[in-house]
Amino acid sequence: MKFMKETDERFIGVEKKIGLFVLAALIGIITVIVSVGLQSDVFTPKTRIFFIAESGQGINEGTAVKLSGFKIGKVKRLYLDDAAKVKVELSINTKYLRWIRTDSEARLIKEGFIGDSVIEITPGSAKAKDVKEDGIIAFERTRGLGEIAAELKDELKPALSDIKQIVAYINDPQGDVKQTLENLRIISEGLPATKQRLDALLTDTDKGVNASVKKIDALLDSTKQTINTVDGLVKKIDKDIPVMLERTNKSVENIQKTTEEIKKATEQAAPHIPSMIEKGNDVAEGTKEVVDSVKKTWPVRIFIKTPEEKLLKVDSYE
Amino acid sequence: MNKTAQKCRSAEVQKIGRTAAFIWNKSFLKRLLLCCSIALLLLSGCGGYKEPTLSDTQLRTAELNGKAESAFKKGNYRRALNLYNEALKINRSIENIDGTAINIVSAAAVYRKLGDKESAHKYLDEILNAAAVTYRPMHISDAAFLKALLQLDEGKYDSAKDWTDRSLSSCDNPQCQGKIYNIRGRIELLKGDLTSAITYGNKGLSLNKSNEDEAETANSLRLIAEAKAAKGEYSEAIKFYEDALSIDKKLEAGRKIAMDLMGIGNTFFKQQMCGDAVKYYQRALSVIEGLGDVQGAKEAVEMINKCSQTSSKNPDKK
After folding, report:
1. CA A150 from centre of chain
2. Could you tell me which chain A residue has the CA closest to the CA of B110?
């Protein structure tokens, strides 16, 4: 027994209805796919270009490629080449390719200091040729915040250490700075008293200067007298000097003669001096040998103690 | 029978005596006998003990060592040090282990006198920590003894004690033991263990007396005196000080004489016998002034002043 009749009104034209439903669904799916594809630039024509980096650090598949702040493509793939360098394949929307020239440079930068990494391509010069499919452009890695911070840290560390030492040096109560300040404080405390003493000294000096002026007057008189005496003496010396000079000349002549004689005698004796010294040495050595031999001979040797190295006596109570 | 035998024997003796007198009375025989005796005496020198001959290098190092000791005794420590170092250099160049050890220990003693403790330790460590060279036990003992003195100077009593133990363990003759016991006694005295100080002092005294080491005997006596004075056994202490003083005077050891006199003065002072104490302090001061010891003179004057103050407070106790 059948539950439903094929002639049931609800099933009349059911095939058409289902067909329409499926069609609508398909149209919806296709629309979504197309719109997503359009959104993702799937249908935009792309051109493949490359750059080669020393390291793939910070570069990932899908990393956006920008030119003057506009997204023009993305990193499609990266792999190691034969020289163990990272070859990065960029997929660039063909319509933007005209701004990329052979002298364009790709740079790995951060969007902001802590943003995502992006590949920024600089527009090339007008003189340079356009980059074509599979073309290679230069790459430069810019330093990230971490690297800058690390570099700064390296540079600041010794400076901070120096500052720390300087601060410690300044703060050291026994250090020069503190001691100088302490001395300055002591000096400044003593300044009023010093001023008073200086005032008193200046008063005394004033008095002293007056007294000195009087003394100087007396001294000048005395000096005048002395000058007169000296004048007389000079006149006397003027008379005596020629006689003295004559005598001195004679003495100098005598000395010269004597010196020449000594020189001659020395020149005559000079050749013999080395041999005399040698002979002297020989005699001294011979004498030493004789004395040594005598020292070793009985009974002299009994009375001569053989020298020996002795330890310096150290007293227990010193 | 016996009487007959005795008569025969006495007759024989008389006969020999007569014959000897006859020979002696002959002047020719007298001369002959004298000549034979002289010849025999001279010949005896040929076969006598001949001391080993030193090489030129050994003579040179012995000469340097002797000069260094002489300079040290004159108080010219810098010259002594230079000479010991020169001797050391030569001994090292010929790998003379004994000579090297002697000059190292001596140079270290001079460094101690000059107040350069660091250099003294460095020199001694060369012997005490030697791995490649084997020094003789007596030299190790001397080095350890000096090390103990250095530690004592620095107030490191426990370390000083350890070094005296090492010195004693390496000391292979009773001559070095006496002074080691003295220094051990001094350590105990400084640590306040008076009984041990006296025990070690007595040990040292006995050994030093038997070795006829007068300087160390006086040191033992002074050590015992100091310990006894500290114990309150004043009369015995003074007796020991006086014994030490008589030896030190015999040896003309100025510094020790002053120490003994100061010790006796201090013992009287402890008994509040300021009159007697001042006499000894003044004697000590006179000796110290003769030695040119400014610090010692200051101490003596201080004690005299103290005595004067005490006397003025208690006029009855003189």
Report:
1. 18
2. A312
- Distances, alpha carbon A44 to alpha carbons A38, A135, B186, B199, B264, in Å: 8, 19, 104, 110, 117
**Which token pair is A134?**
């599979």
B32-35 — which CB contacts under 8 Å span 24+ positions? none
Q: Assess contact for B245 and B257: CB atoms under 8 A.
A: yes
Q: Which residue has the tokens 């000469």?
A: B63
CB-based contact B179 A310, cutoff 8 Å: no
A133 CB-side CA count, 13 A: 4
Residue B261 structure tokens: 């006199």
- CB-CB under 8 Å, A298 with B54: no
Rounded to a whole number of angstroms, the distance from the CA of A284 to the nearest CA of chain B is 16
CB A66 within 8 A of CB A121: yes
Q: What is the mean pLDDT of chain A?
A: 84
Chain B residue numbers with beta carbons less than 8 Å from the beta carbon of A314 are 109, 142, 145-146, 149
Q: Identify from A306, A309, A315 which residue to disrupt to test chain B contact, counting B C-beta atoms within 10 A and taking the largest count.
A: A309
Which chain A residue's Cα is nearest to B98?
A309
Number of Cβ within 10 Å of residue B256's Cβ equals: 23
Tokens 């289902």 correspond to A18
Distance CA B88, CA B196 (A): 39
Q: Which two tokens stand for residue A204?
A: 């005394």
β-strands A46-53, A136-141 pairing = parallel
C-alpha distance from B16 to closest chain A C-alpha (Å): 37
Q: Is B222 on the interface with A (CB under 8 A)?
A: yes
The H or E element that residue A65 is part of is: strand A64-67
DSSP secondary structure letter of residue A312: P
- Residue written as tokens 């020292």? A295
- Min Cα distance A259 → chain B (Å) is 42
Q: CB B105 to CB A311 under 8 A?
A: yes
3-state secondary structure of B82: helix
Give the gap in angstroms from C-alpha A277 to the nearest C-alpha of chain B. Answer: 23
Angle at A179 between CA A174 and CA A183, to 5 degrees: 150
Task: Supply the DSSP symbol for A96.
Answer: G
User: Along chain B (318 residues), what's the average pLDDT of each consecutive run of 10 residues?
Assistant: 62 73 64 75 59 77 93 93 95 93 96 95 94 90 96 94 94 88 95 95 95 94 96 95 96 94 95 92 94 91 88 59
Largest CA distance in chain A: 180
Q: Distance between CA atoms of B71 and B65, rounded to whole angstroms?
A: 10
Query: Tokens 């002289």, residue?
Result: B38
Give residues with Cβ within 8 angstroms of B85, minimum separation 6.
B103, B107
